[in-house]
Amino acid sequence: MSARENRMMEPLLNRLAAEYGVIEHPDLVRRAPALARSLPEGLLEFLVHYRTAEPSAVCLISGLDVDGERLGPTPEHWRGSQYDSPALPQEVFFLLCASVLGDVFGWATQQDGRLMHDVLPIKGHENYEIGSNSLQHLSWHTEDAFHPCRGDYVALMCLKNPDSVETLVCDAGDLDWSALDVDALFESLFTQMPDNSHLPDNADLSTGDPVTDRLRSRSFELIRSWNEEPLPRPVLFGDRAAPYMALDPYHMQTSGWPARATGAFLGLCEEIERRMHGIGLAPGDCVFLDNFRAVHGRKSFRPRYDGSDRWLKRLNITRNLRGSRAWRRTPDDRIIY
């Protein structure tokens, strides 16, 4: 984003931030695809090319203006951080860019059903396998690999990253598929459990709305059942010459798998480890990761808990919102239960 493009976008972003007050406003989310047409033409073309041609699993937009002083301290927790957000104009920009790629959506079982998540270190989570950890690596994974409604893209916008903590990424296009047992990885033999971010331990179990609470309870019960009896599914899908991936090794148990499946899976994991590289996001960077073609994680870091810690925003994006209709209350609802 050039200085000229930032100046061009500033009035629109500030107007929308003032008009809606919160990024979760349903009218703002509904209008976002139309509003996205006001993005700079070059940026629009860049995002459309990324969506349609799949030139890479990684799409990075840099140079969005972020006023560090206006941001204030990094929140201690994600709860309530969407209200009076000092980063609302940047959040609007992030939402508009995401809406060029597809429809944003959220999970009833994640961050209390919010669409835009905060990714920041939380006290007590330092060594827990969840995005709010810090002292241990966040293991690489496909976002929500266990769920049939997982997104096509997962997106991150950086507000603060004082230690240049790297997001780790591996692009399926970089893998040597000829050295792997692709046929075995296409078989429905691999069990994946839900990741920790979807567990009820990380949620307020009562919202005050009986209908919402009933639906969320059903979602958590489904998560529990998938943990106890995970369904076998393939790790690869799509074109066998250039496959898509869905795996989360930390939440997969190889016990009981056929020997060939286990060997093929371990071979894939080793190849991914060899091809992994880091992206050090800076304030104003927005990265869109193709969740069919990339796995991602994060290196460990030491949190300060003094208001200066790493702070990102995250969005899930689907190109087929109708595919999750059985999981959503209404056709235009964006939350999967």
Estimate nothing, just give the exact number of structural domains.
Answer: 1
Q: What's the count of strands?
A: 15
Tally of individual helices? 8
Overall 3D geometry?
A: globular
The N- and C-terminal alpha carbons lie at a distance of 36 Å
CATH topology (fold) name: Double-stranded beta-helix
Which structural class do the helices and strands define? alpha+beta
Uncertain spans, ≥5 residues at pLDDT below 50?
A: none
Describe what this molecule looks like in 3D:
- The protein is built from 8 helices and 15 strands.
- It has one domain (3-336): Clavaminate synthase-like (Double-stranded beta-helix), CATH 3.60.130.
- Strands 1, 2, 3, 5, 12, 14 and 15 form a 7-stranded mixed β-sheet that branches. A 4-stranded antiparallel β-sheet has the order 4-13-6-11, covered by helices on one side.
- Helices cover 29% and strands 20% of the residues.
- The model has no long low-confidence stretch (mean pLDDT 95).
- α2 (26-35) packs across α5.
- The two termini are 36 Å apart.
- The chain has helices spanning 3-20, 26-35, 41-53, 68-71, 88-101, 182-185, 210-228, 259-275, and strands spanning 58-61, 103-107, 117-119, 138-141, 153-160, 166-171, 190-191, 232-233, 236-239, 242-245, 277-280, 286-290, 294-298, 311-318, 335-336.
- It is an alpha+beta fold and 337 residues long.
